[in-house]
Design brief:
homotetramer
Chain lengths: ~200, ~200, ~200, ~200
């Protein structure tokens, strides 16, 4: 039951984050195609961030599914993750409004990196509570994908000042890498598999 | 349990979408009837979109009720549907603020069409996971109503540039068509029927 | 389970309504007491509406607790109630910003009346599904309090154009009348009673 | 079940409060570091308030976990707590936008104090319903930490007019004091403990 409420709260926060991002696309006053044009980069940023929050929700869902006990440390590690994810609407809006300028792109990467670190801390806190032989420890394993995406975000931050399109490409690559659902946990939990 | 969390997250997102749409009705500064008048088209758009999101919530609720297993593919198909629904506040606001001009009406139809396609993909993903003999496959059947409403939205998009009121009438017809709850599933699940 | 999801969705919508109302209190730019003064009527309107949404949540919670089955008609009767409640942030903001002028006060009463009617329709739909001998039918009884508060709201609307303070007083009286939780249902369901 | 819905509603409201606070950090129009600078105090205020709402969510979660029955009085005591917490986005935004001026700092403390009192009322209402020998009564005990943090907030309010940085330091101290999860309840409920 304790776990359920942490899931419910996280679902609430993630649902709000993913939905208020769309509020950054302010309704324009004109009625022709030209008034929509300045919204295009904001829309593209929104798609990218929607996918990222979706990825985090998906992985969080899988992770909690494999978790049995939730203690005080886990609650705070989870809030810490939600904190960084809550900055997505801000960095998404800033990146979109400035047509993918260097600094906003770098800041986006910084939030991405902090969220990845926060997720890693959450995983470690849960594994510390459940033990090394637990289902969740086996399911996560070495978490190569998690470490790799944090490293790519780390690289993308300084790269933004060289060429921001390269950074942006890295963000898209990280997202695509995760769009495939976490087969490690699905392998162990047959009820997750479609068919 | 896996299904529950996907339902909870969808409920959260749909609840936020349906509620933030009302924020497009900005509180006016005057205090007489004339200051309310420009809000009338926004209010009418809000009613239409409220009904649409209500329809999606209702159908989603029935669909998930008949579903037994939720896999990674279903989670993403669901997020894809939520993405298109999340654009409702934007297109509703734009349509209302421009007093139902042609382009905003067409864009509204485009979002409606994409949501219908996303719902169709979600249904197919679930049926693929549950099998052709499953409860959900029988309950949905050929989904004539779903296909018909997607076709009507497809027609309404170009029609907006000929006469936007015809398009709007089509949107109202689609909504009315769905206001009747999904009897196909209710027929199979007696606990859904109001006596 | 069907009931649970309707409760979850309603909780989500009511939680958002009650919370976004506070966004009408725009953060002022100054830093002294004088900059807070124009916010006072908005704050008072917020308190009144917070109490009203709280009352609806409370009664809704008690009503659903006594309900066993939820059908398609109930889902739409519930969405209809949520629609009128979703207009609370707008009328609250308009009433507050205009320092309780006549027309905003009357519109507030109109939304209050429509919400009361929508609640009454929801109750009747549920009782129609559960039967006259059901727990919920016995618990609601003649619903004198519900009918009385709808009548008071009906009186308050034209009264606003005579003296808006009298209307406002009526709104406060209706709220106070409901602040006492619904003892009718608590009487029948002992697990609701404190001690 | 009654308890579950009160938890779900509180989770919804707290999730929205914690997330809409970030909307006070308006996306700036420039794209260099200088445009971010004025947002720094708003960001720091956001962190502080995020931690506070997190603390309340955490303690609320522990408190309800130890509670067995929820009556009408408890529902209203809970709404009363949510009311004061709902003012956090406003006072956070006002404090941040005025770079921690005296009056906004004092008002922040007043909301903090009222929330602490409301939490105390909620605890007392629950204990009155459950009895002095109940799990929750034993788990809370004399609530020294709760009383102490209310007293510190009470001191911080007038102190803001002498030196606002001292007040702010007190707010940080109160937060740190609570960041440690409520071991009193965890001691009694072993399923809460990590490991």
């Amino acid at each position: 039951m304790s776990k359920n409420r942490m899931e419910a709260f996280s679902d609430g926060v993630l649902a709000i984050i993913i939905t208020i991002m769309v509020l950054e696309m302010k309704v324009p006053h004109g009625q022709d195609l030209a008034t929509l044009q300045p919204l295009l980069p904001i829309f593209l940023s929104y798609i990218l961030s929607f996918v990222y929050v979706g990825i985090y929700w998906n992985n969080h869902h899988h992770l909690l599914h494999a978790t049995r006990r939730v203690g005080g440390g886990t609650l705070w590690a989870n809030l810490h993750l939600l904190f960084w994810l809550s900055l997505f609407p801000f960095v998404t809006g800033w990146m979109g409004e400035n047509h993918f300028a260097a600094l906003p792109i770098a800041l986006y990467g910084a939030v991405l990196l902090m969220a990845a670190i926060a997720y890693w801390i959450l995983v470690r806190t849960i594994i510390a509570g459940e033990g090394r032989d637990s289902l969740v420890a086996k399911a996560i394993g070495k978490d190569t994908k998690g470490v790799l995406s944090a490293l790519l975000a780390l690289v993308a931050i300084p790269l933004a000042f060289v060429n921001q399109w390269l950074s942006l490409t890295l963000y898209v690559i990280i997202a695509l890498m995760w769009l495939v659902p976490d087969r490690r946990i699905e392998k162990l939990l047959p009820e997750f598999r479609d068919r």
